[in-house]
TrEMBL record:
Keywords: Cytoplasm, Golgi apparatus, Membrane, Phosphoprotein, Repeat, Secreted, Signal. It comes from Anhinga anhinga (Anhinga). GO terms for molecular function: calcium ion binding. It is found in: Cytoplasm; Golgi apparatus; Membrane; Secreted. InterPro entries: NUCB1_N, Nucleobindin. Residues 7-128 form the NUCB1-like N-terminal domain. PANTHER family: NUCLEOBINDIN, NUCLEOBINDIN-2. This is NUCB2 protein. It comes from the Eukaryota. One of its GO terms (cellular component) is endoplasmic reticulum-Golgi intermediate compartment.
């Protein structure tokens, strides 16, 4: 009662309701570990973020951050593939186009499942923005 937040304490964010909410949170957490990117994020206005200008800053983050983002993307692609397989198994339809199914996941670039690139950050931002228009 009446207690403020302890410095360094993480504040819980409400669930966005997005099926890729965990991926979104992990990407943000990793990006915020990079001092340069965190500063750009804090000073950017909403239009800079939505336009993709902020995504270009991804080229300037540390190698460690990029490696972690690549790992997160591979995990997300694996998760989506499991969802597709489960959907296929439940329907037992052998004529499913895997690429068409992957295209419905607009929060990442499915053409390059191994590397997190500025395009991935841009697609993630645009997918979240479209959800909250």
């Amino acid at each position: 009662k009446g207690e403020g937040h302890v410095e360094g304490e993480k504040v819980e964010n409400p669930d966005t309701g997005l099926y890729y909410d965990e991926y979104l949170r992990q990407v943000i957490d990793v990006l915020e570990t990079d001092k340069h990117f965190r500063e750009k994020l804090q000073t950017a206005d909403i239009e800079e973020i939505k336009s993709g200008k902020l995504s270009r800053e991804l080229d300037l983050v540390s190698h460690h951050v990029r490696t972690r983002l690549d790992e997160l993307k591979r995990q997300e692609v694996a998760r989506l593939r499991m969802l597709i397989k489960a959907k296929m198994d439940s329907v037992q339809d052998t004529g499913i186009d895997h690429q068409a199914l992957l295209k419905q996941f607009e929060h990442l670039n499915h053409q390059n499942p191994d590397k997190f690139e500025p395009k991935d950050l841009d697609m993630l931002i645009k997918a979240v923005s479209a959800r909250y228009k």
